[in-house]
Amino acid sequence: MRRYPISSKDKLVVIANVLKPLLQDSRRFYGNSKCTAALYIKAGRLCEIQQIIDPWTYTAPEGWEVIRIPAQWLLVPAFVDCHVHLALDGISGFKGLHGPVDDGAIAERLRQAADGGITALRDGGDRYETSFKARLISEINDYPRVICTGRAIFRKGLYGTNLGGEGIESMDDVEKRLLQLKEKGAEQIKVVLSGLISFSNPGKVGPLHFSVDEMKTITVRAKEYGLPVMVHVNSDQAVRIAVEAGVSTVEHGFFLSAETLQLMADNNVGWIPTAAPAAAAISQTKSRKEAVSIKKILEQHLNMIKLGHEMGVIIGIGTDTGSPGVDWNNGYRQEMKLFARAGLSSLDILMMASINGAGFLGLKKERGLISIGQKAHWLCLEQDILSNMENFNGPAGIILPH
């Protein structure tokens, strides 16, 4: 993989083929989905975009260095992962989490995410609040931007101890937890509304944690603190509660119906489907019967991803990286390829990976588009992925400011 580090002192012109829908003000550029552009970077930020006809006859202004991206590559915004667990190793999952995570392990996971083209990620929480430590490590080392949730809110006695530590017994406890998280610097809130799905009993999901009224109260109070709500939820009934409560994003969301997808679209509730852990579980189970069951669950989920996209649900890519079988090297590629398997176009997937993800993480002003004023967090991808994202084997090049 080729790296193009950009110093804040540099004056650079990057000549590259770019995807028009991922360009700011794309309507002013002619051509179908692609065009060739000169991108002017000063002090690490994009300051001008010019469309050009022949990249080889282009002459840069005096004092500007030129970087020519190979013609077989495409320039796109770096990716955003909407759901990870930095506390986990991608092998044993929460079963291997027995205490606070070492700084070195966190730094290595962030580095691997960066190598995969991730420019920002949202941590889905754990009992040791690893995301707060990870944010500091990220800022020191210029690793991907970390959006923190801290400890998840869940009902005491139900699923969620590893995500949130101590569970909630009353709505007074919710208020205390929200205040604690806000004071610690949480940027979003993670709520557990249902349990895990059962791989051996398709459709079976753990019990609900909160009623509609309780979930509304949590969401309203969180938003009053300026904290969007991401909610761990599976089953059609539970997702409907989340949508009615006004959450920002549904995480996982297995076993949805078309009617509930339409409610999500109508209410502008985003969806982070996290298909990769289910796909990984197929090869990990020792039971042939369970493998068949997981395959059916996964196929139904992929069908709903395609249908949800067609119905107008805003979908982001979240990998649940750290979960068993979803490691820090290739989790994002796994998820993108599953979206392609679901029938989504490469362009749609790239927009979910950039524009949509930046929106869900509250980073539209700094990530997600090739946009004037933003830092140059860009990737170079082989053009053959446009015909099929299942060809994707990672970025060919990375352009990052430092």
> How many strand units?
15
The number of helical elements comes to: 11
Radius of gyration: 21 Å
Helix content: 25-40%
What is the residue-mean pLDDT, rounded to a whole number? 95
Biggest sheet character: 4 strands, mixed
The class by helix and strand makeup works out as alpha/beta
User: What quaternary form is this?
Assistant: single chain
Number of domains: 2
From the spread of the alpha carbons, the general shape counts as globular
Q: Could you tell me the CATH topology label of the largest domain.
A: TIM Barrel
Strand portion: 15-25%
CATH architectural arrangement of the largest domain: Alpha-Beta Barrel
The SSE order reads EEEEEEEHEHEHHEHEHEHEHHHHEE
> What is the CA-CA span between the terminal residues?
18 Å
